């Protein structure tokens, strides 16, 4: 069965638009779990524009499902410029402190609106290898955010990654253009997934997956987990958060 990890960044973004504690990140985590979510994902950035370091600290002890922290492993510590918001300790320092089930490494920066590309392991493998070794020593499952490039999957395995997370924005964009274009894009991802499986990697996926494009994507060979936040939160505005979680589980083929 494909695991659904619910990304709570947009809940935190809404909270941060006011000087308030609502909506509650931990409260929505509980709602997601009660509705059947298999995991919770957060993506803390140094500018703490949405999920903050303290949100991660609040979530870690209360979760009864897998906890996935994703972000740029090279993001340094940063002092907070907002009253009542603690400093950002640096991504790897936060991971070492909290020991999540899974750590997804993503090559993003503060100047990006959202994650928009995967790692290029022809250039970055040597920098990532010691971090993957450290995650393994800490007992944390590692995942690398990757574009659907079959030729890079063996490199990911060789430097010690446990899984890759396929960046699915191009698939989502193709799906919006019609079934023929969607299936052509899906074949690109299928080839990448097959290469990952051949290299001994687990396969995750995420970014712009929604209720319309998930039914085909769930057929991806070896797909273990999808991380979904933006579309699920948007759907929750009309159907409610718990019902949205249930709808996404149904789109993954689960009752």
Structure description:
With 255 residues, this protein is α/β, with parallel strands linked by helices. The protein has one domain: Aldolase class I (TIM Barrel, Alpha-Beta Barrel). Helix content is 42%, strand content 16%. An 8-stranded parallel β-barrel has the order 1-2-3-4-5-6-7-8, surrounded by 5 helices. α5 links the parallel β4 and β5. The mean pLDDT is 95.
Q: Can you give me a brief rundown of this structure?
A:
With 255 residues, the chain is of the alpha/beta class. The protein is 42% helix and 16% strand. An 8-stranded parallel barrel has the order 1-2-3-4-5-6-7-8, surrounded by 5 helices.
What's the arrangement of secondary structure elements?
Blueprint: E1 3-7, H1 9-16, H2 25-34, E2 39-42, H3 53-59, E3 66-71, H4 91-98, E4 102-105, H5 121-137, E5 141-146, H6 153-158, E6 163-167, H7 169-175, H8 179-198, E7 202-206, H9 214-217, E8 223-228, H10 230-239, H11 241-251
Helix pairs in contact: 7-8, 10-11
Count of domains: 1
Helix content: 40-55%
Strand content: 15-25%
Give the class-level CATH name.
Alpha Beta
Span between termini: 11 Å
CATH superfamily: Aldolase class I
Instruction: Give the H and E element order.
Output: EHHEHEHEHEHEHHEHEHH
Q: Strand pairing plus helix content: what structural class?
A: alpha/beta
- Which second-level CATH architecture applies? Alpha-Beta Barrel
Total number of β-strand segments?
Answer: 8
What spatial form do the alpha-carbon principal axes imply?
A: globular
- CATH-derived topology: TIM Barrel
What is the makeup of the main sheet?
8 strands, parallel, barrel
Largest sheet: spatial strand order? 1-2-3-4-5-6-7-8
Give the overall pLDDT as a whole number. 95
Q: Report the C-alpha radius of gyration, rounded.
A: 17 Å
């Amino acid at each position: 069965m494909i695991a659904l990890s619910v990304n709570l960044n947009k809940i935190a973004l809404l909270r941060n638009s006011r000087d308030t504690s609502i909506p509650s990140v931990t409260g929505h985590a509980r709602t997601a779990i009660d509705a059947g979510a298999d995991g919770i994902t957060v993506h803390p950035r140094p500018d703490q524009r949405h999920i903050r370091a303290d949100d991660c600290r609040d979530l870690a002890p209360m979760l009864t499902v897998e906890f996935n922290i994703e972000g740029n492993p090279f993001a340094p510590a940063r002092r907070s410029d907002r009253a009542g918001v603690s400093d950002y300790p640096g991504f790897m320092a936060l991971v070492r402190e909290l020991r999540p089930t899974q750590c997804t490494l993503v090559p993003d920066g503060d100047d990006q609106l959202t994650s928009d590309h995967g790692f290029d392991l022809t250039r970055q493998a040597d920098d990532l290898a010691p971090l993957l070794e450290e995650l393994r020593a800490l007992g944390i499952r590692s995942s690398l955010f990757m574009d659907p490039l079959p030729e890079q999957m063996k490199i990911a395995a060789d430097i010690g990654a446990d899984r890759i997370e396929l960046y699915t924005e191009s698939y989502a964009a193709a799906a919006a253009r019609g079934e023929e274009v969607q299936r052509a894009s899906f074949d690109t991802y299928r080839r990448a997934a097959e290469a990952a499986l051949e290299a001994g990697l687990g396969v995750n996926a995420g970014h712009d997956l929604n209720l319309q494009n998930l039914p085909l994507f769930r057929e991806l060979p070896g797909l273990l987990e999808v991380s979904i936040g933006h579309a699920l939160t948007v759907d929750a505005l009309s159907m409610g958060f718990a019902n949205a979680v249930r709808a996404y589980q149904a789109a993954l083929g689960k009752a």
